[in-house]
Amino acid sequence: MASKAGLDLWSERWEEGEKMNFHERQPKQYLTEEHIEKLTDGKTGLRFLVPLCGKSPEMKWLVDQGQVVVGIEGVQKPCEEFFKRQQIDYSVADISEIPGGKHFKSDDGRVEIYNCDVLKLESAILGEFDAVFDRGAFVVMDFELRPKYVTLMKSVSKTGCKILLAVQEYDWNERKIKGPPYPVCRKDVETLFGDWCKIEEYSRLDRLKNCPEKFNEKWGPGITSHFRVEYLLEVL
Where the protein is mainly located, per its record (predicted)? Predict the structure, then answer.
């Protein structure tokens, strides 16, 4: 996401997902009441960051739960569609620090989306957050971009901030058709987050067990294991 090519790829993937109704899901599919309790400790009025948010229904659900939400999205179309679909009045302004960047903001100030390259943002623009919901941003950062992305996350996370990090764990060498989502193992998480976060593996789902043909078709034959793993991180 640090280059035009990266944003073009994300845009193409988003359009493909739109055609397949990939974004038509219930808001509690990936963010449940149990997740919310872990992330908020029952508090409201917290600032949530949702990187690479698309038109995620979880953002509206978080607002309805009494939270304040800031999304980041590299493609303009889902930003517009989020506000229209949720029937939220909003305004759009340029991000002066980022040429071509747009800032979508609801009239009540409860939800906003920065439409730009996520890696061009900084804490001076975003501010600080009490919680982060990262369902698909970290895994689309290639191996070279991960440290820069993590540096951004560290700079915008308050002490005590809770981060829900969803990753995909598999053997990169087994994958014939390369590309995102990139694999993330426990060692990767410890290397990048271990010096500033407490790390807890929250859940682990065997995705290959129920639909091996899906991965053979998209990634090529030979994938022997694939897990969706959620980590709950707490900033020290």
Answer: cytoplasm
- 8 A C-beta contact, residue 138 and residue 1: no
Report the SS3 class of residue 216: helix
Which helix (H) or strand (E) segment holds residue 71: the answer is strand 68-73
Q: Are 17 and 23 in contact (CB under 8 A)?
A: yes
- Residues contacting 24, CB < 8 A, separation 6+: none
Instruction: Give the range of the structural domain holding residue 38, as residue numbers without chain letter.
Output: 4-235
First to last CA, the chain: 27
With beta carbons less than 8 A apart as the criterion, state whether 82 and 149 touch. no
34 residue type, one letter: E
What tokens appear for 30 in the block?
Answer: 């990936």
Contact 59, 39 (CB under 8 A): no
Number of structural domains (the chain) is 1
Asked whether residue 23 carries a pLDDT value surpassing 80, the answer given is no
- H helices of the chain, where? 4-19, 33-40, 57-64, 76-85, 123-126, 146-156, 186-193, 212-219
C-alpha separations of 236 from 49, 79, 196, 201 in Å: 18, 32, 6, 17
Arithmetic mean of pLDDT, 186-193:
98
pTM, 2 dp: 0.92
